[in-house]
Design brief:
Helix content: 25-40%
Shape: flat
CATH architecture of the largest domain: 2-Layer Sandwich
CATH superfamily of the largest domain: ATPase, nucleotide binding domain
CATH topology of the largest domain: Nucleotidyltransferase, domain 5
Strand order of the largest sheet: 3-2-1-9-10
Number of strands: 18
Mean pLDDT: 91
Low-confidence stretches: none
Structural class: alpha+beta
Number of helices: 13
Largest sheet: 5 strands, mixed
Distance between the termini: 32 Å
Bound molecules: adenosine-5'-triphosphate, magnesium ion
Length: 341
């Protein structure tokens, strides 16, 4: 079906763009048999098994902090996902994969290897902020600074783009899953209750905020009391969540400041004019836009589709590869090219 595709290999979800749209959007999760490594479920089905399997089944999220953490499971997952999109076609697709900026050569090789093993003909990597700019139709080939902040699940990718490439970037290890972790710690400490990552995530997405809400809201959730070991329902307020996640929020802000401090003053003045482009699921945390506006003293624009625009950008860049080629050495590599590196 598709001769070329774009993949956003995210910590939380894998998204594949081809033709005119995102044709696959599934959790980056696979469940495998512990003894044989054979896959038993993928995506949503595997995600539902988290924390509920027997010792015979392992549920694995092979992408961690935006990079491949479990090669075998990443390979199995990618084979399945590429198979769903491409079917049993004779011609293998060319694949453009978006990754956080500043990866090591080993991390890049591991992605290229995994995607090639999974059925990609040749593979090219592109930094996620560059793919996002393509997806938003931003002309970043000019000597003009554009700053992108992508608060995903595993990383907050901050990049200043200019002249067709990345002038400064940082893939900070503080993002959505750290909000979840902070909520788990808070509930254990303040309520003496243990909750799982799924519950923490539900709390965050339903009532989470990074600035206090004008009207207090609360929700009920279930956990296990740490002393009695019994299941217990408890109530948590939005302002409690705000307090719980405040360190993570501050870390995100200081990472953005760090990148801006390293950016040449001429580009910073462009940024002051245009503000920050904000994306990623973590950007949906209530109050994030206002919090960043205040902390950075600049305007902040949340894009229309913070989940899928990176994937869309990889697909668009595939169609018009010269967009990437203009200033940089983006090139497709077959597996045989890797031996020399
Ligand atoms: N309404 C919401 N409020 C707060 N966080 C949210 C909301 N909706 C989704 N999220 C969080 O966004 C994160 C997923 O975002 P996204 O899809 O951008 O991540 P990803 O691209 O898979 O990860 P990464 O780019 O870090 O590899 C999850 O942590 C999820 O809990
Ligand atoms: Mg992402």
């Amino acid at each position: 079906m598709y001769a070329s595709i774009g993949i956003d290999l995210g910590t939380d979800r894998t998204r594949i763009f081809s033709g005119e749209s995102v044709v696959l959007d599934l959790p980056s999760v696979v469940a495998v048999m512990a003894h044989s490594g054979e896959a038993v479920a993928f995506g949503e089905d595997a995600e539902k098994m988290i924390g509920k399997t027997s010792e015979y089944v392992n549920v694995v999220s092979p992408i961690s902090r935006g990079v491949i953490a479990n090669y075998d499971e990443a390979d199995i997952m990618l084979k399945n996902y590429l198979g769903r999109v491409c079917g049993n076609r004779m011609i293998k697709p060319r694949v453009l994969v978006s990754m956080p900026g500043g990866l090591t050569a080993v991390q890049m090789r591991s992605v290229i290897n995994a995607v090639t093993d999974a059925g990609g003909r040749n593979v090219c990597l592109v930094e996620a902020p560059v793919a996002l700019a393509v997806g938003l139709d931003i002309d970043f080939t000019k000597p003009y600074g554009t700053v992108i902040v992508d608060i995903g699940a595993g990383t907050t990718d901050i990049a200043v783009l200019s002249m067709g490439g990345i002038a400064q970037c940082l893939s900070a290890k503080c993002a959505g899953c750290d909000f979840d972790e902070a909520i788990i710690k808070y509930v254990r400490h303040e309520h003496n209750i243990t909750i799982g990552p799924r519950t923490a995530r539900q709390i965050k997405e339903r009532i989470g905020c990074v600035i206090p809400r004008p009207v207090e809201i609360a929700m009920k959730a279930k956990g296990v009391h740490i002393f009695s070991g019994r299941p217990q329902t408890f109530e948590i307020t939005a302002n409690e969540v705000c307090e719980a996640v405040s360190d993570v929020t501050e870390n995100i802000i200081s990472s953005i400041r760090q990148v801006l401090e390293r950016t040449p003053p001429e580009l910073v003045s462009d940024i002051a004019k245009d503000g920050v482009i904000l994306t990623g699921g973590g950007a949906l945390m209530h109050g994030m836009i206002d919090k960043l506006k205040e902390a950075l003293s600049t305007s902040v624009r949340l894009i229309d589709d913070p989940f899928r625009t990176v994937a869309k950008g990889t697909g668009m860049a595939m169609k018009n590869f010269s967009l990437l080629k203009k200033e940089n050495d983006y090139r497709f590599r077959a597996l045989r090219d890797l031996v020399i590196e």
